Each structure stands twice: as C-alpha cells, then as structure tokens.
Amino acid sequence: xxxxxxxxxxxxxxxxxLGFFVLAKKSSKxxxxxxFLFCLVVSVWLFGTFMMFRTTQDYLAIFWDRFIYAGVVFxxxxxxxxxLLITKRKNQRLLLYTNYGLAFVFLFLSQTKYFVDGLFYxxxxxxxxxxxxxxxxxxxxxxxxxxxxxxxYTFYKNKANALEKAQLKYVLLAFGLLIGIGAFAYLxxxxxxxxxxxxxxxxxxxxxxxxxxxxxxxxxxKIAIKHGSIYVGSIIVTVALTFSLWLFLNKLVYSSDIGTTxxxxxxxxxxFSPLNKFIxxxxxxxxxxxxxxxxxxxxxxxNKLTTIINLDQIIDLxxxxxxxxxxxxxxxxxxxxxxxxxxxxQVAKVVGFNKKNGISLVQDNFLTRHLAVTQKPLVxxxxxxxxxxxxxxxxxxxxxxxxxxxxxxxxxxxxxxxSSNKLTGIIVLGGKVSGDAYSKEDLDLLTVLxxxxxxxxxxxxLYQQVQDFNKTLQTKVDEQTKDIQEKAxxxxxxxxxxxxxxxxxxxxxxxxxxxxxxxLAMMKEGDMxxxxxxEKAKFVEGMFQxxxxxxxxxxxxxxxxxxDTADFDIETKDEIELDKFLExxxxxxxxxxxxxxxxxxxxxxxxxxxxxxxSIKYLEQVIDNLLDNALKYxxxxxxxxxxxxxxxxxxxxxxxxxxxxLKDDLKRIFNKxxxxxxxxxxxxxxxxxxxxxIKRIMDRHPGSKVWAESPVRQALTAGGEESKxxxxxxxxxxxx
Length: 736
Ligand code: ADP
What we know:
It is a single chain. The protein is of the alpha+beta class. 64% of the residues lie in helices and 12% in strands. It folds into 4 domains: 2-220, Rhodopsin 7-helix transmembrane proteins (Rhopdopsin 7-helix transmembrane proteins, Up-down Bundle); 221-287; 300-466, 2-Layer Sandwich (Beta-Lactamase); 574-733, Heat Shock Protein 90. The strands form 4 sheets. A 5-stranded antiparallel sheet has the order 4-3-7-6-5, sandwiched between helices. Strands 9-11-12-14-13 form a 5-stranded mixed sheet. A hairpin with a 2-residue loop joins strand 6 (413-419) and strand 7. The structure holds adenosine-5'-diphosphate. Adenosine-5'-diphosphate binds next to helix 22 and helix 25.
C-alpha cells in the first residue's frame, strides 16, 4: 500500500525527466518547449497528487489540490498547441488563443472556493470536492483534448509520410493512455471512491514516448536520451545496490548507523564509474543498437574509403555497407557516363535489383533532374506529398509516374551522388528486411555515406583519368620514339649516301683534275718543250677532254641535286615527232660510233605517226645520254635505236652488244651515284648520275616510263663471248 502512494511521485519523476530530455536537445524548436511545458504541468499534477494523499490536515489537502490545478488548467491549451505543431496545422490559431485565455481564467478560478472546496474521505485517503467552475472546466478540458486527437488523427490519415505515421501512432497511444487512464483522477472529486491508480498513466505516457523516440526518431532526441538515460540508469542502479548493502549491513552485521552509512557511501563511490561504463556498453549494444552501429559504420567506411582507389572496389564497399547496416532487401549504384552524349547511366553494381530495372528507373530524366536540384535523398513514400505540393501539372504527373516506377522495381529510396555540385550518380535502395520505414536517422546516415561515397568515387575517377592519360602519354612517347628511331635510320642512310657521294665525287673529280694538273706541271717544268709538236698537241687535247669531263660531272651533280627536290617540275608542252627526233639524235652520234668502230643504226619498226608531248630540251638529254652510255659500254659490235607503236604508246629501244648489266645492278642503276660493277672496269670516269637524271625526267612526263633489260648474265656464265648487251626502253603516250 505504501508503495502505491509513491506512484504519483514516480510518475512525476518519469514525466519530468522526459520533458527535460526533450528540452535539452540543442535545436530550439517550439514543439520542444511546448512539450516540455506540457510535461511540467503533468508533473505538477502528479506531484500535487502525491502531496495531497500524504497530508493529514484538511486545509493542506485543499492547498495541494489547488496547487494541482495551477498546472492542470494548462493541459488543454498545451495539448492543443502541441497537436498544431506536430501536424503543422495553421488554421486553429484563434481557437488556440481562446484556449490559452481560458487556461488563465481557470487558473484564477481554481484558486477560489467555486472550483474545489470541502473534502471527501475515502478509505485510501482524502479528495477535494468539485464545485461549479470545476464542471465547466471539465467540459473545456475534454473539448480541447478532442482537438488534439482530431488534429493528429486527420494528419495521420491524410498527410503524414511513413516515418511520421510510425511516430504518430505512438503519440496517439501515449496521449490516449495519459488521458484515458488519467481522467479517472477526476472521479473522486465527484464522490466516486475509485482507487487512484490513474497516476500510473504518467509512467505509461513517458515509456511509450521514449519508445517512439528510440525506435522512430521522435523529436530527434535519441542521442540526448541515450546519454541522459545511461546516467540516470547508473544512478538508480548505484542507489539500489547501495541501499541493499546498507540494509544488509544494518540489519545483519552491524548495528552502528554511522558505520553502515559510511561503508555504503564508499561502496557507492567505488562502483558508480565502472557501473556507468558497463551500463553504457550494455545500452549501446541492446537499446541503442542502430545508433551505435551507425556511428561505427560511418567510421568504418571513412577509414576504408581512404585506402581504396579502385572504383569497382569503392562501389562494392558502399553498396555492401549500406545494405548490411540498414538491413536492406536490395541496393545498387548507377553512375553517369559523361563521355557519352547525351550522358548515359551505367550500372556500377546492383544487389537484389534487376539490372534492367535499375536503368529503366534512371531513364526517367525527371528523377535525374530532381536529384540534381534538391541534392537530397528522395523517399518513395514522399512522392505523393511532393506531387501535391508542386504547382506545375507536368511535375505532378512526373512525381506520380516516378512513384509507379519505383514501386514496380521495389525501390524505396534514391540518393544522389554529388560531386562539385553536379549529379554524378544515384544510389538506389530497396526497402528494409524488417519492413520498417526509413527513419530520419537513416536518412541522415545515408546522406553522410553518400557524401563520402561521392568524394571517393570522384577521386577514383580522377585517378582513373590520370592513369588513362598516362597510358596515352606512354603510347605517344612510344610512337614518337619509334618515329625518331625511323628518322635516325633514315638519317644514317642519308649519311651513308653522302659519304658514297663524296667518295664517288672525289674520285670522279680527282681523275680529270690530276690529268690537267699533271699536264700543266709538265708545261711549267719545261718538259713540253722537248716534245714533238704532235705529242704536245696530244697532251693539250687530253687536258681539254678532261676539263670537258670535269665540267660535265659538275653539271651532272648540279642537275641531279636540282632534280632531287620535291618541287622539281618540267614543262611538257612541246609537240615532238618522236621518230624524227630519235633519228636526228642517232645521226649526231655517228661520229663517236665511227671512232669506236661501232655500227650505229636507226630503225622504225612500225608506221607512225609518233607524235608526243614533252620537253624537247630534257628529252634530248635523255636520248643523248642513253646513246652515250650504249657507245661507252660497248667495246665492239653495234648500237641500235628503234621506234615502234604499241597500242597508244610509242616505244623507243636503245640496244647494244656491250658489256651488259649484272642482275644485281639492274635493280639499282636508276638510283643516284650507282655504277655497275663491270662498268667501272670499262670506263672509270662515270658519275652514276646519268640514269638517275633520265628517270627523273621520264617521271615528270605524264604516262611515260623508262626501264632496262640485260640478258647478259646468262651469256657471261657461258663464257662472256655471247654477251647480248643491254637494252634501254622509253615509253611515251602518243597524241591522238
Ligand atoms: P655512269 O655511266 O656515269 O656510270 P649512268 O647513270 O649513266 O652512270 O649509268 C649507271 C650505270 O648503269 C653504269 O655505271 C653502268 O653500270 C650501267 N649502264 C648504263 N648504260 C649501260 C649500257 N648501255 N651497257 C651496260 N651498262 C650500262
């Protein structure tokens, strides 16, 4: 019985503690202050009741009852106010002010004998009698309490999102218990002897709300509750243990009061700190599991993310961490591939989702746009609400379509991945295994996680880009190196050619100059004077011939180097009758042929006309050179120049019965400075430039070409006597 008398006090302690915890939360929202004031007036009721039951004197009973009403008169107004704040309702202002006004009126009246006066005596204690204004107050009390339930219930039905619904259920239950049970406290005032169990309602009210706070993030005071309740718990357990010890020592061991008290206090001091630690650990593990776990998760993920640079690994870690921490059915990450235009999403990882479904979700451009703008998590349950809120009709529809989409693939939440203020991807999450809605705490955690993920993903992407850039750079360097190597090889060739040229040129130039120098030396020494006039003439003639040779070599070198440039060009405008042209050239060489006792013939193998277009100046050089060579490399026999028509072409062949050209040399003789092996024995002064010049000239005559044949090799292997010499062909397109 005596314990029951303490019930109102215990209730009072619970309600007041709850009020203080809510108030202790840093944010200064009005709802917290109103809730605190409500707890305060409820505890005034509970405390006053406790005192009223204890009192033995009638006037004190009335005093405490009036004390009670000093609090209770505010209950209707505060509850009404609370319901408006929690449901974000704005249209009952006037009613609220009236309510507060009435509260002050009743505050005044409650202190008069027209409110409560006189006492009922019951078996369990005394209670005041209700008077006239008390009846009116009761009417007002229930009238406004009806508003609390009405406001909350309609909000719950029509507007609340999933989280709010979960919270409001408990709010309704808590107030329901408080009022439903608490209202019985009025009965003794009307002479009904009911045992005052109603004070238990304070405890129940506090317990239900604490549950809502812990599990559904009600009024966001979980952390404050956590620290506070651990301390309160530790104090209660310490006091209980110390009291037990005190009882034990007092009754059984000692009889000395001071001794037992001092021992008990020392005991209390010693056990408090370890006990507090133990309770904290216990509470972290069992009561505040998710909170504890979430903080751990954030630390864990942060530490891990800093060590990973591989994009796939980061995505794996993020998806798994979120899925496991929240205990989700499914989760996935979609990343924007900006290299494609318009940009596309690629599925980085999905667990539990169908890949196609994931992509179909983000093909909804609206989602992308919405997330890019809000940069906040998007909860499926809120889409109806968002659709109602928006003014644009197309957005209204888009929200609903998005909801359909998300429902179809069973996605509950979309989190934006933002980096440098741009949307780089989306984390799509399914529902929780437990079926619970996402709480505000969940969303806070997810926001932190997605921020971290965004940074890590961005870093990984940058790293990837640097890697790719490195690779391209390497290939570029490799290419360049190859190019340089090729150039080096080419340069080496050029250097070799240059030294070949110098060899040949110096050799070619040295022979005639040494003859000229020798002859001039003889003249200087006076050796020539001893000679007969014929011998003298022979030397002078030799010197002249060599100087002519020298001039022609220098000329060849100049012409060849001029022709070797890319922009060398020939004007091929002259109309030439090729048969006559060739015949004239042949005739001009008859003297040289006769000198060498060679026959030189011209023959037209087919009928003409042999009209072509070309450059007379350069073609003279070509034919002259070929005839010169033929005569030069033919020790005996003949040289023959023929012309014939073949299709639309004229073909000139200059053949001889000379030394021929070796097969190896045949491939190269049109190159610069190339001289045949056998040619060098026969004629020492060649430059190896004649055929090169001929080839360049023919190349500049469109549709024309030059080539050589020499069957001499077989002949040489057969003993050299049957040399068939060589033939040089020139082909020109005929004019029509
Ligand atoms: P060069 O006559 O000064 O050596 P060319 O360029 O005129 O230079 O000739 C290149 C080489 O082609 C000659 O060294 C020779 O080996 C070969 N050649 C050219 N014409 C004939 C030919 N009619 N008979 C044999 N070899 C020839």
